[in-house]
What we know:
The chain is of the alpha+beta class. It contains 3 helices and 11 strands; from the N terminus they run E-E-E-E-E-E-E-E-E-E-E-H-H-H. The protein has 2 domains: 115 residues, no CATH class; 70 residues. Helix 1 packs antiparallel against helix 2 and helix 1 runs parallel beside helix 3. The N and C termini lie far apart (58 Å). 20% of the residues are buried. This is ERIP6 protein.
Amino acid sequence: YPSGNLAIIVAQKKKCRVCIVQEDKPSYAEIQAIFKSDGRSTCYYPNGTVWIYMSIQGGQYLDQAGSRVRRWTWPKSIVSPGPHVPLRPIFISLNQHVGVRILGQDKIAVSFLAMGRQAKFNVGTKVQVSNVSQLPPPAPLSEDELLLLAFRVRILRLFDRLRGCLNFPSSEQWDKLKPPAYLITQTLKILQLCTSSNISDELRSSIRAITHA
């Protein structure tokens, strides 16, 4: 930092590489972010709570109260807890001089800007997993996320039915139309998630009604 305090540490031991961002303090500096070459990374708010967490499956973005703001899965992730959720680009500032840009699993950059000069560190990686049993268990979906997935399928079903009505104006043909295979698959996945999640029977019945409406 311009103060002379250490800002970023990059260390490597054998095949493991770690990039650590520290706060601007002369001693007892807290870690603001840590990026590992095994695909696990964490960014922290100034108060120490987790801001962003990433694994070989995907990532989560949390607010300062610890509530999940968004989540995503990496393309071609081996294990996914539900339908694939693409990443929307993320840009955050850890402090006045250090920022993080997340565009993909192998496109994660830490940028340092001070006194008109800039340095960038590519901390993204593509992790190849040979043993699925080595994967950490996927984070469970919250009740709100399950409801959003159910409403998403319902909306897609309505759009599909609307296309069918436009293509076949005769009402006699409407009941013969079946939803496309991908919607049936997504519906089954959501119902499987409801079965494996710790939610109430009332919510499980509501989700079933939404997806089959």
